[in-house]
Write a structure and sequence with these properties.
The complex is a heterodimer of chains A (about 350) and B (about 425). With about 350 residues, chain A is of the alpha/beta class. Chain A contains 14 helices and 13 strands. In chain A, strands 1, 4, 5, 6, 7 and 13 form a six-stranded mixed beta sheet that branches. In chain A, strands 10-9-11-8-12 form a five-stranded mixed beta sheet. Classes of the chains: A alpha/beta (about 350), B mainly alpha (about 425).
Chain lengths: ~350, ~425
């Protein structure tokens, strides 16, 4: 009896939940603010500065989304989430969108009932070793001790890689990236493995970065992207086309510097459609006509955001690599705006 | 032969003790160099202390306090003390200490947490030191409402109307007590709840529309740093003591339902790690509440921490109760005191005195356990240390942040422990 009541209440609660969150855009507009789930701190991707303002590559996407919806990139609250509570916070409706360097996998997309709305950073797992070890390839790491963060996809990739190459390793499980840096520098492990972007950021923070090398092998695909709850396609469309707008803007040469000029007059019909001076794309999304222009004005186009937070001019110093436009040998390919 | 007795008529002056057993030399001999084994142990300990300090002190003191980022810190250290020296980069603390204390609380409103903290000291003073005037306790009772209003802001009518609920309960109890005792108790519980849940919201809105007094609201997600640790720790400490005493009494009572509930609650809570309860607070509770309800995460965590430590307090207090001789209970009965009078006048004062060290160590443990909230994404000092490291200016900083956080926690916990020793000395009326 009590059990039945319990499940009944649970079902009723989830029915209410499904009903109320049927249109996230309306909820967000009624609230007047977007709530964006972000990392509690990952160099270059999201971190609060000395004044408590969040900055970073993932954060910039949320500002662009707030710009697209409200025309005001500051109409967003950030909720720091850990690897353990990020998905439950999204599914319970605590956040509207999760931009937290999350790898797109089938399980997370299907089984955890999320919708990944695209990829904002193509990452891959790499290895860092001290130069004095003289190792030049990950295949020479037989018997090495490896520092690895627990509970992430990197742990599983590592096991796969070593098994496929028929070599052995000894894992040193650690919890956070900061701890990993200490363990690695103290010599507790020969190798540190995590996403290549994280390795670059870690190495840049060392006192003598030149004493450490990042091995050429990238052993996994880690497409990192923002995600939303499954079941609200309209909201997923808005989130996904905002990301596409940032990517397309770079491809079309629309930057935060020339966007006002281009909004006035442009020869290129696709730019005109993107910026809302022609056609009614914004109306179709349920947003204002200049939604994409507002998204781009927030922190610039994809390339500008990349250079500002993680590009070669920053301490993290990542090259564009796979994250270049398709026209320049990368994987970024926004569908056409028409 | 006549024996002439010798009688000394004047008192001799005392002679100073020999050099080997008095003064610094005597102390050294007695405590440090008493025999070959002790001498050897002393020498080994001195070497260890010297080695530790010779590494630690240069790191702590030959350090940098003013720099923009870690790289600059390293340059300054290299330039001043040479490339071999490794010194601390306290500049990160200098840059972020406000954040470590207040989190992201709006800078313009820092006077609010500061004032709350000052008022908190005033509010707990009469509880801690009985010499102070008892009238100050009135302020202590009002403080939770004033403090919450100052921290979270919003309309002033909110805390006033919450207080009014207690007033309604008290009034109902007083006037209905003449009619019927049970009815008055029921009314004193039910009426305030009805007031808080159904009526208060409307009244607050109405009053606020007429007299809009209030402070700028501050969201919970802007709270962080030591402020969060102190809010969670102190609220949980204050609420868990009465709750724990109730549970301890409930466990000893002969009322079957009350006893079963108390035993079940205590054993369940003690059987579950705090981190599990925090996960329940942060994730599971959301699924049971209608969407859109914004049940504050910090409040949820405070509730869980209170429940957690009340179970431990209950067991500590039960230990105190068990240590009392049975004669004390019988004496209370023979004086004709009823249950509550006996508890209040005879049992609890003695039982709590015995339980002080246990209670205080539970509190110290609870205060330190508040750092676990970093795992559910609340930016307490530990959570903030992670966020600060993610700033590219300070990426690579490690021990400095932990050293600072540990230092501040030490100050708090050490004061609590000293206070408990003071209290024990004061209450040591020596009947054993």
């Amino acid at each position: 009896m009590t059990k039945k009541v319990f499940w009944g209440v649970l079902a009723a609660a989830s029915a209410v939940a499904g009903f109320a969150s049927a249109d996230t855009l309306d909820d967000v507009k009624a609230r007047g603010k977007l709530i964006c789930g972000t990392s509690t701190g990952l160099a270059g991707f999201s971190a609060p500065d000395a004044n408590g303002r969040y900055e970073g590559f993932d954060v910039a996407y949320c500002r662009a989304l707030a710009g697209a919806i409200f025309g005001d990139p500051e109409a967003v609250d950030f909720k720091p989430l850990t690897t353990t509570n990020r998905f439950s916070a999204l599914s319970a409706g605590e956040v509207d969108v999760l931009a937290r360097n999350t790898t797109w996998t089938l399980t997370r997309d299907v089984d955890l009932k999320n919708t990944f709305i695209g990829v904002n950073y193509y990452d891959g797992q790499g290895f860092m070793v001290p130069k004095e070890l003289g190792v030049t390839s990950a295949r020479e790491l037989d018997g090495a001790t490896v520092c690895i963060q627990t509970g992430t996809t990197t742990e599983l990739n590592l096991a796969d890689f070593f098994r496929a190459n028929n070599i052995s390793y000894e894992p040193v499980p650690i919890e956070t990236n900061a701890e990993a840096q200490q363990q690695y520098l103290a010599g507790a492990c020969d190798v540190y493995t995590t996403d290549a972007s994280g390795l670059a950021a870690t190495r840049a923070s060392f006192e003598a970065p030149g004493d450490h090398v990042i091995l050429p092998e990238i052993i996994s695909k880690e497409p990192l992207g923002p995600l939303v709850r499954q079941g609200d396609d309209h909201w997923a469309d808005i989130a996904s086309w905002t990301l596409n707008a940032l990517i397309a803007a770079e491809e079309l040469g629309v930057t935060s510097a020339n966007i006002d000029e281009l909004s006035e007059s442009t020869e290129n019909p696709e730019i005109a459609r993107l910026l809302g001076t022609e056609g009614n794309l914004g109306e179709m999304l349920g947003l204002s006509q200049d939604w994409a222009a507002n998204a781009i004005k927030a922190e610039g186009n994809y390339g500008e955001i990349f250079e500002k937070y993680i590009g070669e001019g920053t301490p993290i110093g990542l090259a564009r690599g796979l994250n270049a436009q398709w026209t320049e040998g990368g994987l970024l390919y926004a569908p056409p705006f028409r | 032969m006549e024996v002439k007795p010798y009688v000394r008529t004047a008192m001799l002056d005392g002679k100073p003790a020999p050099v080997t057993s008095s003064g610094p030399a005597g102390w050294l001999k007695k405590n440090l160099f008493d025999g070959p084994w002790n001498t050897a142990a002393t020498l080994v300990a001195l070497v260890v202390v010297f080695l530790l300090l010779s590494h630690l002190l240069p790191w702590v003191f030959q350090s940098v306090w003013n720099a923009e980022n870690l790289a600059e810190c390293r340059e300054i250290i290299d330039a001043t003390w040479g490339p071999e020296h490794s010194g601390a980069c306290w500049a990160v603390i200098h840059d972020r200490y406000l954040q470590l204390i207040y989190g992201f609380y709006p800078w313009d409103f820092l006077w609010r947490p500061n004032l709350t903290f000052a008022m908190m000291l005033v509010a707990i003073a009469p509880v801690l030191f009985t010499q102070l005037p008892r009238k100050m306790l009135i302020f202590s009772c009002l403080f939770p409402f004033i403090g919450a209003w100052l921290l979270w802001g919003g309309s002033i009518w909110q805390p006033v109307m919450v207080l009014a609920g207690f007033g309604i309960g008290a009034a109902a109890f007083r006037y209905l007590a003449k009619v019927n005792r049970i009815l008055s108790i029921a009314a004193a519980i039910v009426l305030p709840v009805i007031w808080w849940v159904f009526v208060m919201e409307t009244v607050v809105h109405g009053l606020h529309a007429v007299i809009p007094l209030g402070l700028e609201p501050v969201q919970s997600n802007q709270f962080g740093g030591f402020m969060v640790s102190i809010i969670i720790g102190l609220t949980a400490i204050t609420c868990s003591l009465p709750l724990g005493i109730m549970l301890a009494l409930g466990r000893q009572t002969e009322l079957f339902i009350v006893r079963t509930f108390s035993v079940g609650f205590i054993e369940f809570i003690r059987g579950v790690p705090l981190i599990t309860l925090l996960f329940v607070a942060s994730t599971l509770l959301n699924y049971f509440m209608p969407p859109g309800t914004n049940f504050d995460l910090i409040v949820r965590v405070i509730i869980m921490a209170t429940l957690f430590s009340s179970a431990y307090i209950a067991e500590v207090v039960r230990g105190g109760l068990a240590a009392l001789p049975k004669g004390q209970y019988e004496a209370a009965d023979s004086l004709g005191l009823d249950y509550w009078q006996a508890q209040q006048l005879i049992i609890m004062p003695q039982a709590l005195k015995i339980a002080i060290p246990g209670i205080v160590s539970t509190f110290i443990g609870l205060f330190k356990d508040t750092t676990l909230v970093s795992i559910i994404g609340i930016l307490d000092p530990i959570g903030l240390s992670n966020a600060i490291r993610a700033d590219s200016a300070w990426n690579g900083i490690y021990w400095e942040l932990f050293a600072f956080i540990g230092f501040v926690f030490f100050i708090f916990c050490f004061s609590m422990s000293r206070y408990s020793m003071y209290l024990e000395r004061k209450l040591n009326t020596g009947h054993r």
